[in-house]
Amino acid sequence: MMEKRPPGGLAFMKMHGLGNDFVVIDSRGREAVVTAGLARALGDRNRGVGFDQLAEIRDAEGADFALDFWNSDGSRAGACGNATRCVSDYVMREIGRAAVRLVTARGDLAAVRRADGLVSVNMGPPVLDWREVPLAREVDLLHLPLAGDPVAVGMGNPHAVFFVPDAEAVDVAGWGRKVEHDPLFPARTNVEFASVIGLDHLRMRVWERGTGITLACGSGACATAVAAHLRGLTGRRVIMDVDGGRLELDWRADGVWMTGPVAHVFDGWLSPDFVAAAG
Known about the structure:
The chain is of the alpha+beta class. The protein folds into 2 domains: 10-123 and 262-278, Diaminopimelate Epimerase, Chain A, domain 1 (Roll), CATH 3.10.310; 151-253, Diaminopimelate Epimerase, Chain A, domain 1, CATH 3.10.310.10. It is 19% helix and 38% strand. The protein contains 5 helices and 17 strands. It has a 17-stranded mixed sheet that branches.
């Protein structure tokens, strides 16, 4: 039998969207509790819980909730589309609605649950100004001056999207790590490798800054869809196969909508000693 939870611990949820996994902490009704140290400790898959990103739910005026995001190395993430879909589904079930509005560093976003159970989120318009991506200097965003001729797109996080003959054959770790830290990206960058496998159908693999290879990346999927359309490779609606499954992307007038499955795996409790040691 589990002992009664002592004071000073911290409740959390484990969720994932297409294997892109998250620890979620609900801080509504209190001060935010996540620090860089706690994010690093929690993100350790051997000594903590493990995640691709950590999401903290907060109160928000004029919206149903707000979200802050952290990478496993303790750095902040500006956006996390799959975590946004997972938490939106959780809040929709909590309040008994099929639509919510939320606030992130990207601004005000909307999410809905479709009749088929898939959850869609509007990730907002893409950022296509070099200063805001951000890049270190003015360059052609559709043809960055890097080997492989990538496209730069901002979706709350910076992204460098490479179109390759076969995404399966790419050394994602080696290439991704190098590009993440290229001086052209003052805030580092996520790196996507995509190939066209059919009409408006892409295969994409991703290296996330501050985390590494992940099975899916929501903001990366949105950035890749935008880059593919701007390069004339697809229309504005695409199907995208990632390592963890399939996403639907639709670049509309109001932003890039992303749709896919969500999963709430389990609830847990961090011990007071773990929380205290994390700082």
